Prior knowledge:
It contains ten helices and 18 strands. It has about 400 residues and is an alpha+beta fold. A 14-stranded antiparallel beta barrel has the order 2-3-4-5-6-7-8-12-13-14-15-16-17-18. About 20% of the residues lie in helices and about 50% in strands. Strand 15 and strand 16 form a beta hairpin. It has helices spanning about 1-20, 35, 50-55, 80-90, 95-110, 190-200, 205-210, 255-265, 315-320, 325-330, and strands at about 25, 65-75, 115-125, 130-140, 150-170, 170-190, 215-230, 235-240, 245-255, 275, 280-285, 285-295, 305-310, 330-335, 340-350, 350-360, 365-375, 380-394. It has one domain (about 25-394): Porin, CATH 2.40.160. The radius of gyration is 23 Å and the shape is globular.
Amino acid sequence: MKKALALAALILTLAAGTGFAAAYKEEPFVPESPGALGSGGSIVADVSGYDSFFYNPAGFSREIGSFTLTSTETWITSRPDLLLGLGEQLIAGTATPSDIINFMSGQVTTGGIGVGGEEGIGYVGNGLGLGAVLIVDSLLSGPTLLGMNGDLTATLGFIGGLAVPFDLGPVKINVGGAVRPMIRVHVPVDSAVAFGVLSALAMKGDLLTALNSASALYGVGIGLDVGATAELGWFSLGLSIRDLGGTQFRYTSTNFGTLWGTLSTNLEFPTTGTAVTADTYTIPMDIAVGLSVHPDLGSFNNILDPSISVDLHDLVGALDGSASIWTLLHAGAELRLLSLFTLRAGLNQGYLTIGAGVKLFFLDLNFALYTNELGAYVGDKPSAGASLEVAIRW
């Protein structure tokens, strides 16, 4: 008995000293693309061009070539109508700190509030995909304003991949793969830091000062993506496996003030951080399948070019029971007019989406209003948002 008690004491002592290992889900390397989200996020079977970096590398061989000199996206996670109302007050100078706090409280306790952005460059076509993309995103949520928490992530990714087209009888097949080395900064935000950030926003204070005390993680990870499409007449089938086997980040820990000071001064990470060895941080593997119908109207396609598509994403979540079928479903329609304008509408995880785009020579503009489901079932935690892309591509 004495030996058993001594062994138990030793185990508890070691556990107290080292802590228990935990597994954390990292955010996938995917922007809130208005071109995809406007049509419900259904893009796997009919993807091409720049979006191939984020949804299906088989798209690398689905067109002759497309060069994106710059893609700049910005999005906000919030009720767009309420945000516009607050914006009008701010412009008119009638908004008080109480108005701002009340708005933030309403957003935090429903779908959360956050902002994000993407900046990228890349070439896709002739079976080749090469790009570099920076994605920054944030989200704060919780049961109350004082009980909120969240995350801030910034990821620089480099994408390189190949795709091969071949014919299998009347069916045209595209098979592709990509490797994606990434550098990521991940700042978990607890309730005290989160409230400091929102207070700085409401009082027009310094956001970086509010974040200085937050813990910060920085490190690298390498993602692998594979995909395929099969085209027969008007119909296309698609399969995409993103972050094959899960993409794990190897992190070092420090505080945000130290990290930001070193990055902003020397453009390098600090050397005084502590390697994170016990916990794991992984982007889960995402398996998606899709079906697209794109009618060939001949020369009339230059006037009206319609398509519809349906996807099922996160099939791993469906198999392990962590998500319902409705949260996996993405469906949408796209109508191109005169090869200049695009109208989009869809159903994203049970919620309606709308979007539009216009392309004038090299300038490509896209906008979308959408809702994502952050919970396991439709209605658990709907998170509304709006996204805008301004790109120069040809």
